[in-house]
Amino acid sequence: MKQWLSVYLLLAVLTGCAGNPVFRPQTPQAGNTMLYLYRPEASTPGVAKPLRLSYPEVFIDDRSVGVIPYNRYLPLEMKPGKHEIRVTGLTAQARDWEVRDIRRVVNVPAGQASFLRLGVEYNLQKMNLMQPRSQYHILLTPVREEDAIYEIRHIAPLK
Fold it and tell me: Which residue from 19, 25, 17 is spatially nearest to 149, judged by alpha carbons?
């Protein structure tokens, strides 16, 4: 009986340690920088999450860097400077993403990681029982590293 209790306690400790991951940005090659594009889990209460099975394709300077599914992130190594980001559903790789394109120009400085959050939430103020379609808040926003590391640590990378 004591052996089973010891095994159970050991598993509980190990599981508890694994539940608090730490995220650390990757070190890019010399002369490059890192951009993390992440799509965290929606904060909507309950089981239903907005566009959970839908995802857009991401382009940086008109070059595809992949899709960004729900609760995932893309670590992107690139040259420092200004880059145009486009999030679109108008490609064969995108899946059921009917949201209009989002475009943003970002300036990624050398020597530090940059973070962009693709936030997808239900717009509960515009939704009611008589409305046939869901309404969303979808924003592509820069996030300070101090804040992003807490959001991104529970998200799985794509690459």
Answer: 25
Q: What is the pLDDT of residue 112?
A: 86
CA of residue 8 relative to chain centroid, distance: 34
| DSSP category for residue 25 | P
d(CA 79, CA 82): 9
The per-residue pLDDT for 51 is 86
Q: Which residue reads 């590293």 in tokens?
A: 145
The gap from C-alpha 130 to its chain's centroid, in whole angstroms, comes to 32
Q: Where are the alpha helices (DSSP H) in the chain?
A: 2-18, 145-152
**pTM of this prediction exceeds 0.70:** yes
Give the count of beta carbons closer than 10 Å to the beta carbon of residue 142.
13
- Extended beta strands in 13-123, E state: 33-39, 57-60, 63-67, 72-78, 81-88, 102-108, 114-122
Which amino acid is located at 127 in the chain?
M
Tokens of 75: 């670590």
- Integer Cα distance of 90 and 79 in angstroms: 26
Closest C-alpha to 151, from 101, 106, 115: 115
